[in-house]
Amino acid sequence: MTVTIEKGAEQYAEQYAEKGADGEPAASADKASANTASADKASANTASADKASADKGNFNNAEPLNLKNDVRTFGQFLYQKFINSCIGYYYLTIHYLFVIFGALVILFSQNINFLAIIAFLVILDAAAIIVLHHCPLTILEQKYLKVDYAQETKNVLKKCNIMYNCPHAYESQLEYVINIWCLAVLKILAIMLMKVFSVTVKSA
Fold first, then answer.
1. Where are the domains of the chain?
2. pTM for this model (two decimals)
């Protein structure tokens, strides 16, 4: 009788060791835990794949660099800032040289032919001002340099209390050209009169 009880107790102890805390078999609990770990790992792999796919999609949808437009933009900047300035100062230099050389010829030359050429060039400039309502070289300077030197000249004259009733720039330019032409013609007439009356001017 005692042997039977002890044998039954041993069998009960073995069955209790094979069961989990909730009464489930230990092997089933381990298997469920392994399945859960596998599911977590699969979910993590899926998330990684989704992230990689999203990154690839963002890379493909990114706007590519357009080197052609960049080169064109740089070329336009270079043309506007450098080339235009060079062309504008070229016309400005020619304008100033015309004025300076013409003034030197009128002041120091006694050659009637030279003075007549200056007077003819001044007449051409006056005709261009009448047709275009502006000096041609001043128009080119304003086109490339974006500066109206005729208006700046009027501002300087205004500070000197020399003012014009009409706001048009070409009228002041025409008056300036007419004065230069008159100086050239008057000097030609003076030289002709000196030759008529045999008046000579001795140079130092």
1. 2-61, 80-196
2. 0.58
